[in-house]
Each structure stands twice: as structure tokens, then as C-alpha cells.
Amino acid sequence: MATDYYELLGVPKGADDKTIKAAYRKAAMDCHPDRHGGCTDKEAHFKALNEAYDVLKDPQKRAAYDRFGHAAFQNGSNGQGPFGGAGGGGFEGFSDIFSSIFGEFMDPRAQRASAARGSDLRYDLELSLEEAYSGIEKTIAVQALAACEACNASGSRGHTAAQSCPSCGGAGKVRAQQGFFVVERTCPGCMGSGQTIADPCPSCEGEGRALKTRKLNVNIPAGVDEGTRIRVAGEGEAGMRGAPAGDLYLFVHMKRHSIFGRDGTTLVAEAPITFTTAALGGCITIPGIDGERIELKIPAGIQSGETIRQRGAGMSVLNGRGRGDLMARILVETPTKLSKDQRAILEQFRDTETGDECPASKGFFRRIKDALGG
């Protein structure tokens, strides 16, 4: 079974590019074959690290790997899914079956489609915790190749049809004999499209697409978290001369919240209380992520560091129902400023202490006394 690329580099699945690069450099340096006298095991591990980094450093390959795993790069799929297409929805007609058996060079139609399809895009989207809780529709600006309006994506000045490339016969690739070997490369005449334009459009130089900034409305579901990836089909770069567009992948990043931390669907908050509330018990109020006020009952004798759980007051469940919990971590605060009367009351209380009020302290000092021989 192939090793998971993230585990191989020792990084979490949501790691950013900087973390992945640093982890790769450290791991590659530690197991470089030159440092281990040509050890075959180290050499194999070094090659595996390079393979993992080659995929994870590339946004397109990484998005495909996160979705399909190692199957995304098997059978020459180039990260387009286990069946060679971005949708991964299985074979479609005789062309795909023909290509899967005999290869792309034997099937010019599949080759042209692969070369002409637009690239996938990555967009990093930052959200507040409240937006992630409720879900939101966001308007984003994406600068990418879009269908050329001047030629209506045809690539031709007069909207005339493209002609089959004379250099490759429409295959998109050419072969050259070098001794006993046959070298196959992208056709320089049509750049892999299999077609040429007699009178190219001056706006897009015959590609049928031009750089443009588009505004898109995207729906973000409730419950997304750091590292969540959302695929928006068909909103990537436009394909050449009307070919299908790639996909847009949204990568979610969470802003730091002033009150809450997050662990999955659980919200975590620190709640300072006075030492009198800790001793006598009471009630405190904190704002919930949904805007509602949450009352937490403090039991008498609670200790600093203990937690109180409020069921159903946490984050929304992604693609599910209900909510997680809220965990309030209690911090007992010792007063730093006392009035004369308050000090007198506390001194009076201290004079009445027997040690039974604080069993942990009593037990600690008993152990100290025993350790010192009584």
C-alpha cells in the first residue's frame, strides 16, 4: 500500500506551503543517500520524499491527491482523477474506453481535450468564526483566463472554424526517431491543441481566452474549518477555444477569535471567576457564537483549570445536523487589590482555617512533613 504523502513528510493534511517545504527540506537532508554511504533504503526513502513533495507543493496536484489519493496519478491521469477526468465520474463513451486501452496518442480526441481544458485554480478564503458557524455567501474576485469576448472564444478574428494542425495531423503531439527510441512531445505548431487558426484574434492571439478579473458569488456551508476545501465546478481557467473550463478550489482559513478557540465542532473559552465565586458557587454569563447569551452555573468549590460543558452551544456540524459543545475552562483569579475591610474579613477567615477547607493543600504539606522526617 502506498504511503500517505502527508504522513511521509510528517505534516497535517491542512498544512500550509511553508510548513510542507520546511518539513521536506529537513526530511530530505536527514536521509540523503550521500550522508549514508549509498544506503539503498535511504535512497528509496529519499525518492519517496521527493515524490510526495512534488505533489503537495503543486496546488493542482495537491487538490487532486486530497480528493482521489494515489489513484489521481495512476494510469497517466496527471492528477485529473482516477478515470482521467476532473469529475472522476467514470468512463464516458467509446473515446474514453479506447484511450484507456491504447493510450492518448492512439486517440487524438482524448489528447486534444486534455490539452485544451482549462487549468484548475486555487483561492485562499479567510472567514471569521461566526461566518463559519452560520455559513455565508461570499463575493470573491478571481483573476484568470476567461473566454475572449472579442472572438466569442473561437480564437479567430472572423469567427472562422479552426483547421486541423498540419504538423501533427490533429493529434496534438509529434514523434521523432532517435536511434532505437521514439520520442513523443507536444506539437510546437499547435501547442497540443491539434488545431491552428489562419487569422488569429488580436485580443487573445488565437487562444480564445484572455486574462480577466471576474466576480463570483460562492456559497460557504455552515461548519467549515481550517483547511476545508470547496470545489466550484467550471469556475477555473477557461479552456482553449471554447474547451471546458477547469475547476476552482476554495481553501478555507480561519481568523483568530477574541473569545473562542476551536477543536472540531467544540468551542473552547477561558472563563476567569473570582475566588469567592469559586468557593461559594454562582453563575456567569458569556456570549454564544450564535449571539445568544449563555449562563454557566458554577458549582461551589470548583478548582482552577476545571471545565464546564454546555451541550449544543458549539459549532455547526459540516454537512450534518446539530451543533457541538461549548467547553468553558475555569480560571480562578486571586484578588490583587483589597480594601481595608476586605483584608480584615480575609484575615478573620484565615484565623478560623483548620486545613480541611483545602484538602489538596493539606495533603501536600503532610507529604512534605513526612519527607522531612516529621
Automatic annotation (TrEMBL):
Classification via PROSITE patterns = DNAJ_1, DNAJ_2, ZF_CR
Q: Locate the CR-type domain: which residues?
A: 135-213
Q: Which organism is it from?
A: Sphingomonas caseinilyticus
Domain remark from Swiss-Prot or TrEMBL: The J domain is necessary and sufficient to stimulate DnaK ATPase activity. Zinc center 1 plays an important role in the autonomous, DnaK-independent chaperone activity of DnaJ. Zinc center 2 is essential for interaction with DnaK and for DnaJ activity.
User: Which Gene3D superfamilies does this one have?
Assistant: DnaJ domain (1.10.287.110), Heat shock protein DnaJ, cysteine-rich domain (2.10.230.10), Urease metallochaperone UreE, N-terminal domain (2.60.260.20)
Q: Which residues form the J domain?
A: 4-69
**Compartment(s) where it occurs, according to its Swiss-Prot or TrEMBL record:** Cytoplasm
Q: What is this protein called?
A: Chaperone protein DnaJ
CDD domains attached here?
DnaJ, DnaJ_C, DnaJ_zf
Alphabetized PANTHER family for the sequence: CHAPERONE PROTEIN DNAJ (PTHR43096:SF48), DNAJ HOMOLOG 1, MITOCHONDRIAL-RELATED (PTHR43096)
Please give one Gene Ontology molecular function term for this protein.
oxidoreductase activity
Listed binding positions for Zn(2+) 1 are 148, 151, 201, 204
As for what it does, the entry says: Participates actively in the response to hyperosmotic and heat shock by preventing the aggregation of stress-denatured proteins and by disaggregating proteins, also in an autonomous, DnaK-independent fashion. Unfolded proteins bind initially to DnaJ; upon interaction with the DnaJ-bound protein, DnaK hydrolyzes its bound ATP, resulting in the formation of a stable complex. GrpE releases ADP from DnaK; ATP binding to DnaK triggers the release of the substrate protein, thus completing the reaction cycle.
Q: What is the lineage of its organism?
A: Bacteria, Pseudomonadati, Pseudomonadota, Alphaproteobacteria, Sphingomonadales
Q: State the coiled-coil residue ranges.
A: none
UniProt superkingdom: Bacteria
Main site of residence?
A: cytoplasm
Q: Kindly state which keywords UniProt assigns to this record, in alphabetical order.
A: Chaperone, Cytoplasm, DNA replication, Metal-binding, Oxidoreductase, Repeat, Stress response, Zinc, Zinc-finger
Q: What SUPFAM superfamilies is this protein classified in?
A: Chaperone J-domain (SSF46565), DnaJ/Hsp40 cysteine-rich domain (SSF57938), HSP40/DnaJ peptide-binding domain (SSF49493)
The signal peptide here is: none
Entry's cofactor comment: Binds 2 Zn(2+) ions per monomer.
This protein's cofactor list reads: Zn(2+)
- Annotated Pfam families: DnaJ, DnaJ_C, DnaJ_CXXCXGXG
